[in-house]
Amino acid sequence: MTVSLGAHLGQQNMTMDELRALWQKLDGAGLDWLSVWDHLYEAPPAGGTIDHFEAVATLGALAVETEHARLGCLVFYVGYRNPGLLAKAAVTLDHLSGGRFELGLGGGWHQWEAEAYGYDFPGVGTRLDMLDEAAELIVSLLASDDGDGLRRTTFEGDHFRAADASCLPPPIDGRLPIWIGGLGEKRTLRTAARFADGWNAAYVSAEEFARKNQVLDNWCDAERRDPATIERSVNLQFAMAVDTVSAERAAADLDAQWGPMAARIRGGALLGTPDQAAEQLLAYAEAGADLINVALRAPFDHDALDAYVNDVVPAVRRAT
Hints:
Elements: E1 4-9, H1 16-28, E2 33-36, H2 55-64, E3 70-73, E4 76-77, H3 83-96, E5 101-106, H4 111-116, H5 124-143, E6 153-156, E7 161-165, E8 178-181, H6 188-195, E9 198-202, H7 206-222, E10 231-240, H8 244-258, H9 262-266, E11 269-272, H10 274-286, E12 291-296, H11 302-319
Parallel strand pairs: 1-2, 1-12, 2-3, 3-5, 4-5, 5-8, 8-9, 9-10, 10-11, 10-12
Antiparallel strand pairs: 6-7
Helix pairs in contact: 2-3, 3-5, 6-7, 7-10, 10-11
């Protein structure tokens, strides 16, 4: 049992200088993964009242100012960008990072920001149809090769299309990993089984993660895919603290931050003291997680983050 440990950085409520210092610190500390999210407003929703940076531009800086961690976005909503444009952005980020970028795709959920910025936000069934099409198209753009050095894709879907499109240069390693994010058992996990190199779940308990993991394995069997070829990851809301008193306060702050959504988020939050947090991470590793990310939303407890990086991460690595 080996598990990688990373951080999922919400690019909100911080200056760009603060974000840059944070990701350089975490990369220098040896975390295995750093990602951002694809939002135009803050999450949890607050009506567009909190400073928030766009994902692709942020990732460009992240790519050139780090050296070690794998990089990604968990996940890009396919309704915000044409898949061809997103594939080109992904390859560019791959080259900027020296081959460390991995592309996450999802069906989206933040209706409020979409409507505010003038994007259509159809029902979940249509959005998952869009995700299927976008994943198929992007995989083809990033992997197709006619044998003569040219990479060409033709695709005609209900939502997206491409006509003899090339995507040059190719990714540095010849291919670029694709992640599918989401919890839907009937559609999203099947899409992951069909197209993904990795699957990401957010804010679920270790027990629920294990159950979803098995659903993905079942879809892999249905798609005649080796389940071992899909990396499994989970994002946990960071609410750890350095002592018991601070842990109680951190849990109360989480409830206040998330409001009506708090009960669900708590199920997938890293809570308690460093020793308790290490036990939680090991439970997710036992449930099948190959990668565990702490999700950081400012303001957060910097002393607790230091304890996580300096104490919890080494302890978990020793145990796995």
